[in-house]
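Quarterly update from the structural biology core.
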Amino acid sequence: MGKNVLVVAATPGEIQPFLDSVRQSQGLVAGHAIDVLIYGVGLTSATYHLTRQVLLKKPQFIIQAGIAGCFTKNTVLGSVAVVKQDRIADEAVMESGKLKTVFDLRLNSSDKFPYSGGWLINENTILQKLPHTKVKAISVNHITTSKKMVELYRKKFNPVIESMEGAALHYVALSEKIPFIQLRAVSNYIGERDKKHWNMKEAIANLNNDITTVLNIL
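Predicted structure, tokenized:
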């Protein structure tokens, strides 16, 4: 029997092909009833609108889909990964040349639910069923462009993916005990702002194909 699935994204352009298929199928994809939420760019907007939608609709599963920057140059542009764990990287301060998080400063407990060691970790068994690479991610309010910040984040968190909304999904879904998946298609390498070197077209195409892949596995 199908589930009530909420598919969320920051912008409609990231999931336009999937939106078209939902409209054509009158909201039923792979046997699941689909709701779609475009929550806007950034952690604040994502957290508010996602929480509101969850409380109103009470979905049985959430899929977050979006493009992302990547820290590792051996990752192929256009490829899609599943985020295993996420956190807000710039909820922090620079002291003596070191990046210190709110957990380092003991302003928050790194193991207070839904955190585990400062991370928001997706332990759902569906991750094991998916063919995608499982990665660490960070979420930021300020997109990383400087080499100094790239190295600070690498040293501190060893992330693969950076987005502006991923941690919001993990926080809300874990708090509300709703199973979820964060799908991220790599459009660019972190720090590269010349979009001629990005691969948006393939990233979006692969991302939208993989939303359906996840729905078929649920």
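The two ends are 10 Å apart (CA to CA).
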